[in-house]
Specification:
It contains 4 helices and no strands. It has about 150 residues and is mainly alpha-helical.
């Protein structure tokens, strides 16, 4: 049971400290992107910094260091799914940073292609979907782990 507690703690930490903070940032970005706020100055550098902080936090979770008994296949499966979710999250953050960097450059008057912006937004949407699928897969296995605890 002590080994299972380690994986439970890491999954809970991932959701509370990383995913919830990401959702808060996403809501803030959406709020600052509304029609009524479009004439206000946006601090893209702060957004980029916030996303990079979340990336560092996600990368600090080392799933290989989570000790699991050899016979505990369910915990090993949760650990593997957590590793996948973490890598998908990092991919999403990279897409967000790319998109926010584009907006920063645009706000400074650089001539940038609308097609490049659409590609950046598409990458954010695509990686968001991939992460959501990864989280659903992890949640399904994690629910089984909690059930047998």
């Amino acid at each position: 049971m002590a080994d299972r507690q380690g994986i439970v703690d890491e999954v809970e930490s991932f959701y509370v400290e990383i995913i919830e903070r990401y959702k808060d940032m996403e809501r803030q970005v959406a709020g600052e992107s509304r029609l009524l706020t479009m004439f206000k100055k946006v601090d893209y550098k702060a957004r980029i910094s916030g996303f990079k902080d979340l990336k560092r936090k996600a990368q600090s979770i080392n799933v290989k260091k989570i000790t699991i008994e050899e016979a505990d296949e369910l915990s090993a499966d949760v650990r593997d799914k957590l590793g996948i979710a973490l890598s998908l999250f990092v991919k999403l953050i990279d897409a967000q940073v790319s998109c926010q960097t584009f907006l920063l450059k645009k706000s400074k008057g650089e001539k940038l292609s609308t097609i490049d912006y659409k590609k950046a937004v598409y990458r954010v949407q695509k990686t968001t979907e991939e992460l959501q699928n990864g989280l659903r897969n992890m949640d399904a296995v994690y629910a089984n782990l909690e059930e047998f605890e």
